[in-house]
Amino acid sequence: MRLRAHHLLCLQGFRGLGYDERFVLVTQEVLEILRINPSLHVKLVDEPDILCAACPHHRRGLCTRNGPNTEERVRWQDREILKLLGLENGCEATFSWLLKTVGNKIASNDLDRLCTNCQWYSLGYCWEGIASLRDQA
Ligand code: SF4
């Protein structure tokens, strides 16, 4: 499976909220596949993925959520997260290893720096999910 790097963090806070019904359904399916198969290899990238393909803000291969330049900002966010994880764009690892690495390497102030433009960030769900990975790491 191929995921935008920042979606690895978003998935930790997913509680059924999303841009529309289709997006929520696809996100639930992706999470279920990953939960059932933690040894599945995930390729982390800085470009649109399976979740973007189901998103109403995805147009012609680009994220347009906050206007025409959004994709550039989202790619920056993906690359910053890859850096924090110590990984390269296009790297592959098992989902379980990636969860452990997120738990070990992502701190709450990283989310403050990278995710404040997200409409769900202030709910705190993502950090709660990541903090529970830290407890397990
Ligand atoms: S808002 Fe942008 S980055 Fe997020 S899922 Fe939609 S297209 Fe992808």
Task: Explain this structure.
This protein is mainly α and 137 residues long. The protein has one domain. The chain contains 7 helices and 5 strands, in the order E-H-H-E-H-E-E-H-E-H-H-H. Strands 1-2-5 form a 3-stranded mixed β-sheet. A two-stranded antiparallel sheet has the order 3-4. Helix 5 packs across helix 7. The longest helix is centred in the first third of the chain and has 16 residues. Iron/sulfur cluster binds next to helix 3. It comes from Calderihabitans maritimus. This is Iron-sulfur binding protein.
Could you name the key traits of this structure?
137 residues; mainly alpha; two-stranded antiparallel ribbon; globular; binds iron/sulfur cluster
**Small molecules bound:** iron/sulfur cluster
Indicate the percent of residues in helices: 40-55%
Main sheet attributes: strand count, strand direction, barrel closure = 3 strands, mixed
Radius of gyration: 14 Å
Q: What is the succession of H and E elements?
A: EHHEHEEHEHHH
Number of helices in the DSSP assignment = 7
Overall, the morphology is globular
Give the N-to-C terminal Cα separation: 23 Å
Spatial strand sequence of the major β-sheet = 1-2-5
Beta content: 5-15%
Low-confidence stretches: none
Arithmetic mean pLDDT: 95
Helix-and-strand structural type: mainly alpha
Count of the separate structural domains = 1
Number of strands: 5
Protein name: Iron-sulfur binding protein
Pfam family, one: DUF1284
InterPro entries: DUF1284
